[in-house]
Amino acid sequence: MWQLGLPWALALLLTAASSGASAEPADPASIFADLSPAELRAVRAFLMERPELGLSPSRGGPLAKNSLFLVELLPPKKRSALRFLEHGGARPRREARAVIFFGAQAEPNITELAVGPLPRPSSYRPLPFKGGRAVPFWARPMTRLEYELLHEALVAALAPLEPLLREATGFGFQNCSERCLTFSDIAPRGLGPGERRTWLVIQRFVEGFFLHPAGLEVLLDHRDPDPRRWAVLRLWYNGRYFGSVRELAESHARGALPLARLPEPPARQLFSSYEPRGRFSSGTPTEVHGAKVCEPQGRRYRLRGNRLEYGGWSLAFRLRSSAGLQLFDVRFDGERVAYELSVQEAIAFYGGHSPAAMQTKYMDAGWAMGASSYELARGVDCPETAAFLDAHHLLDADGPVRFPRALCVFELPTGVPLRRHFDSDFQGGFHFYAGLEGRALVLRTTSTVYNYDYIWDFLLYPNGVLETKVHATGYIHATFYTPEGRRYGSRVHSHLLGNIHTHLVHYKVDLDVAGSGNSFETMDIRFENISNPWSAGARVVQDQGRVGQEPPAPGLTPPLTCGRYHLAVTRRHESEPSSSSIYTQNNPWDPPVTFESFIRDNETIEDQDLVAWVTVGFLHVPHAEDIPNTATPGNAVGFFLRPFNFFSEDPSVASRAPVIVRPLDPPACSRLQIQRWTPASPGPCVHPEPFTYNGTYRQV
């Protein structure tokens, strides 16, 4: 942590007197709202003006500088929030979380600050990690500046390999404007604490370049803040390791190197592109629009700022830059069922024969997956009828950046009734038919973290069920094909290996069921074999439910310890807001947040404020059908929050959407009584606006 001295103390004393009251919107949900562009600018301006911090702009300059990396909302403490929401207490002080890279000092480090009050900040204080652990400078997330310097260093270092690369791929690094090479970087960046050496996968820069590895992988050491001291340590080309660029170049010059010559990429219908190619055998039309979602009588949900209401549901939401969607104060019919439900981490662990593949263990909070929320396409990513919302992030930038249409809200016909019954008279007629259409409200955003696209959904059903779901799509993380690589995946194209990997997604579920004092119980189902009480000599074999408090079974065991458990339940602590951090990716060996410490303190979890930590995931063995992209069917996971004897009956009986049909002349059933509480016909179902898309995200 940055060392606090006299200037810090003076800053706190001098600024405390100047703090003023903030003008907040009246809606209570706004205490959880993301920072506005004005608030982001105010925080940045306040910190940049503090002489004791010595901050420089994010863009340009050296790596060894003090810079502001991230600003986002610091949510209020739960006790203060509940006092305000439930008991009319004071509105919690609105504050920002600021992440500062202190690189221009003798012991560089990363420090987090709480800055407030907003909208006019006047003071700050340190935000320590649990146990007071410091974050070393080498554990910082990558920045745009470091990537620019990394590219420059790579181009200079690989200059002797330009003849090899041009001959093998037709592309190069030197003096490049077209037919260029690029790279993807792998993490973690080393094999132990203190390292910052990254394997770089060299690729041809064409559409879908993730599927165009050139056969060359380079290990570059970039720990030193001075790029002039960076160096290439190892290389891997077409299945062979080399100790230096010179060794590889000389091997090629002698003609002793088996070249991996790549075919010329076509100008059209490249295999990694979305351009249509081929025809379906049925001949049914695909050049016309398919089925669409419509709202014939208008929207049945209410969206006010960051408050969302639908049927019995009410909640507040935000899209935090660090880790994505976060719900607060989730209620049904006015009663809170969860204080917080949020994405914590998305991780992917790979296997492979090449060094980059075997080193890949992505932990996407370290890539700020919440700030990778690019524009959603109307009619593709979300229905045309959806309500779209912008997001603003201040991440590795000198001002807030607007991400248009980063979230969407829409009501979705599920295509299956929520419930239905046909009551047969077993004589060719019926006593009644009743059904309730299946609908859900969807809150959605996406994270495009390098090659992969995650689609994040929260679905609200009228029967009090909440579903959390994530779809994985985008480009597979692929490496250059060698025969030895077949042990670790599938050959999905001529020079391409789709590497086997496991996806794990971690969620925080702070349930408040009938209050904050909850207990955790499991129900075991087992067979029992008993004497039949009404037939002597007979036996009955049936299920028996047993409630207990057994710990969940362990699952996979990656370096991120939250992934060991499908479900873990702990006491809630303000010092344990998240199970991961933006620093775990580059320091998985000794991260500042260790989930294992949450569950090893031997605390009671009976009648306490509890948090359920949920891990879902799947194994992905890539195949040819993952070209050009992994498809969403079969690649989605999630979980449900379902009421269990919480209501006296299914709460969806309050819906006015059921249909009931009764015969007036049974058993003939020639005259029917049809009851419904909605208009008999939904009316026209067409969205008149043409498709539009912008795709930009710019500083505002």
TrEMBL record:
Which cofactors? Cu cation
Give a short account of its post-translational modification.
Topaquinone (TPQ) is generated by copper-dependent autoxidation of a specific tyrosyl residue.
Residues the record lists as 2',4',5'-topaquinone modifications: Y452
Q: Where are the transmembrane segments?
A: none
Residue positions of the active site: D364 (proton acceptor), Y452 (schiff-base intermediate with substrate)
What GO biological process terms are annotated to this protein in UniProt?
Answer: amine metabolic process; response to antibiotic
Q: Any idea where the Copper amine oxidase N3-terminal domain is? A: 140-239
- Cellular component terms (Gene Ontology): plasma membrane
State any single GO MF term.
copper ion binding
Organism of origin: Molothrus ater
Ranges for domain Copper amine oxidase N2-terminal come to 39-123
The Copper amine oxidase catalytic domain, residue ranges: 292-529, 564-652
Under which name does UniProt file this protein? Answer: Amine oxidase
InterPro entries this protein is in?
Cu_Am_Ox_Cu-bd, Cu_Am_ox_TPQ-bd, Cu_amine_oxidase, Cu_amine_oxidase_C, Cu_amine_oxidase_C_sf, Cu_amine_oxidase_N-reg, Cu_amine_oxidase_N2, Cu_amine_oxidase_N3
Q: What is its EC number?
A: 1.4.3.-
Q: What's the superkingdom here? A: Eukaryota
> Where does the secretion signal sit in this chain?
1-23
**Family (UniProt):** Belongs to the copper/topaquinone oxidase family.
According to the record, cofactor stoichiometry and binding are noted as: Contains 1 topaquinone per subunit.
The answer to whether the entry has keyword Metal-binding is: yes
> Keywords, A to Z?
Copper, Metal-binding, Oxidoreductase, Signal, TPQ
Q: What class of enzyme is it?
A: oxidoreductase
Write down a Pfam family by its short name. Cu_amine_oxid
